């Protein structure tokens, strides 16, 4: 069921989204060679706490028997890890690493979801292009995040753009509606057909989140039951904002 948010709910969404953006900022400032992904996770936890929020990722159910609930405050996915990388004290960032940080802040019962990909230090030209294309893929989708279009129009725009740049989109994971739940209807795939899927209506809040792989699109899950990595070992990037569909242009809520 797709929920249409009231004005009061939109205000609450904005608050959660602002906090998640502030948390991304704190992480961006802290990323440097030598820091562990665990250290970044603690920075996220403290920042959210400072603003009266908490991570909605911590304790998120896996839905799979034998796989524990999500153990950390953040998903930090380095290089060939696409999404759901679990922070660790043993994972020390080094110059050139491609680090995707996916955060969900929960405040007053509403979720804000945002992912960014950072390059540690200078980074290669290839890495920069991958990160840029992933960001632009979000904006290609955003052009259709309007009343009068359908979810498939967003999906199609993202998929075609990424393909045109010689990269692959992840097919097994997608964007989503968001509100009281981190994941609500509709699903927002990163590929698809124009003119298909649910109609976009003012008051819908959705996450558009291209996950882009440099090489082959095939992914697999690591033994922890969470970490998703590319099969061919190629790098990947992720870019996500929570947005509001309005009568006119979409509004990006995950800003500070
Ligand atoms: N933030 C992710 C998304 O974009 C989901 C995180 S999964 C969790 O949908 F288990 F870590 F919560
Ligand atoms: Co999301």
Structure, described:
With 256 residues, this protein is α+β, with helices and mostly antiparallel strands. It has one domain (7-252): Creatine Amidinohydrolase, CATH 3.90.230. 27% of the residues lie in helices and 24% in strands. The mean pLDDT is 98. Bound molecules: 2-amino-4-trifluoromethylsulfanyl-butyric acid (MF3) and cobalt (II) ion. Cobalt (II) ion is lined by residues 113, 176, 207, 209, 240.
User: What is the share of helical residues?
Assistant: 25-40%
Mean pLDDT: 98
- From N to C, what is the helix and strand string? HHEEEEEHHEEEEEEEEEE
Broad CATH class: Alpha Beta
Strand content is 15-25%
Radius of gyration: 17 Å
Q: How are the strands of the largest sheet arranged?
A: 8-7-9-14-15
Describe the global form: globular
Poorly predicted runs of 5 or more residues: none
Number of strands: 15
What small molecules are bound in this structure? 2-amino-4-trifluoromethylsulfanyl-butyric acid, cobalt (II) ion
Give the arrangement of secondary structure elements.
Elements: H1 7-30, H2 37-50, E1 54-55, E2 75-78, E3 81-83, E4 98-107, E5 110-119, H3 125-142, H4 151-164, E6 168-169, E7 175-177, E8 184-188, E9 205-208, E10 211-213, E11 219-221, E12 228-230, E13 236-238, E14 241-244, E15 251-252
Antiparallel strand pairs: 1-4, 2-4, 3-12, 4-5, 6-10, 7-8, 7-9, 9-14, 10-13, 11-12, 14-15
Helix pairs in contact: 1-2, 3-4
This protein binds 2-amino-4-trifluoromethylsulfanyl-butyric acid (MF3) and cobalt (II) ion (CO).
Structural key phrases:
5-stranded antiparallel beta sheet; alpha+beta; 27% helix
